[in-house]
Amino acid sequence: MNASTESCGCHGEPARAQTDPAYRRALLTVVVLNLGFGVAELFGGFIADSQALKADSLDFLGDGSISLIGLLALAWSARARAKVALTQGLFLGALGVGVIGFAIWRALNATAPDAELMGTIGVVALAINVVSALGLARFREGDANVRAIWLFSRNDALANVAVIAAAGLVAWTGSAWPDLAVAGLIALLFLHSAYEIVTGARRELGER
Q1: Would you report the helix, strand and coil content of the chain in percent, each value rounded to 5?
Q2: In this structure, how many other beta carbons lie within 10 angstroms of the beta carbon of residue 39?
Q3: Which H or E run contains 60?
Q4: Prediction pTM value
Q5: What's the count of helices (H) and strands (E) in the chain, helices before strands?
Q6: Where are the alpha helices (DSSP H) in the chain?
Q7: Spatial distance between the Cα atoms of 67 and 122, rounded to a whole number of angstroms
Q8: Are 60 and 40 spatial neighbours (Cβ–Cβ below 8 Å)?
Q9: Among candidates 60, 74, 73, which has minimal Cα distance to 30?
Q10: Chain centre distance of CA 125
Q11: Do 106 and 166 touch, CB atoms closer than 8 A?
C-alpha cells in the first residue's frame, strides 16, 4: 500500500473494525436503515408488481439481518467471526438462487410493473444505501465478517442504480423484461459476493 493510499484513509487496518467505536455506530445505523426500509420496499414491490424491487428488498433485509449478527459477533473470537461470515456467504448464495428461480417463474406470465413507483422507491433506496456504504467504506479491509457486511452494503447501492435504470426502461418500452432482467442481475451480484465471502471465510478458518 503506498503512502497516498494510507493518507486518504480509504483502507482500514484488519483489526480496526473490532475495536473502533465508530464502526459499531456505523453498523448499527446500517442495521436500522436496512431492516426498516427493507420491509417498506417489500410492500412497495408488491404494490408496484416489480420483481426487481422485491429482490432488492430481500437484499435490504438480508443486509440488515447479517449486519445485526455481525454487530453481535464483534465480541466473539476470530474463528467464530469467520464461521459467521461463512454462514453469511451461504445465505447470500441461497438468496441469489431463489431470486433467479422466482424471476424465471414470473417470466412465464410477466406483466409490466408501475414504473413511476418503481423508480421513486429505487431513488430512496439508493440514498439509504449510499449513506450505509459510505459509513462502512473505511472499514472494508477487516476480517471476513467485516468484509461480508461491506459487500452487502455495496451490493445494495449497485442494485439500486440498476432498479432505477430498469424503471426508466419499463416506462419507455411498456415491457416487464427490464424489471425481470434487473432482478436476475441482482441475483448474480448476490452469487458473486457470496463466492467472495465464502472464499475469504474458508481461508481464515484454514489459517486458524
Answers
A1: 85, 0, 15
A2: 14
A3: helix 51-73
A4: 0.66
A5: 8, 0
A6: 3-8, 16-19, 21-48, 51-73, 78-107, 115-137, 144-173, 177-207
A7: 21
A8: no
A9: 60
A10: 11
A11: no
* DSSP state, residue 166: H
Q: What are the CA-CA distances from residue 52 to residues 32, 115, 198 (Å)? A: 22, 11, 25
The whole-angstrom separation of Cα 46 and Cα 54 is 7
Q: What string of pLDDT tens digits covers the 208 residues of the chain?
A: 343 333 333 333 345 545 567 777 878 888 898 889 989 988 998 898 888 888 788 778 877 877 787 777 777 777 777 777 788 788 878 877 877 877 777 766 667 788 888 889 989 988 888 887 777 777 666 656 666 666 777 777 777 888 898 888 888 888 888 888 888 888 887 788 788 778 877 887 776 6
Whose cell is 431513488? That residue is 123
- Give backbone dihedrals phi and psi of 15, rounded to 5 degrees, phi first: -90, -5
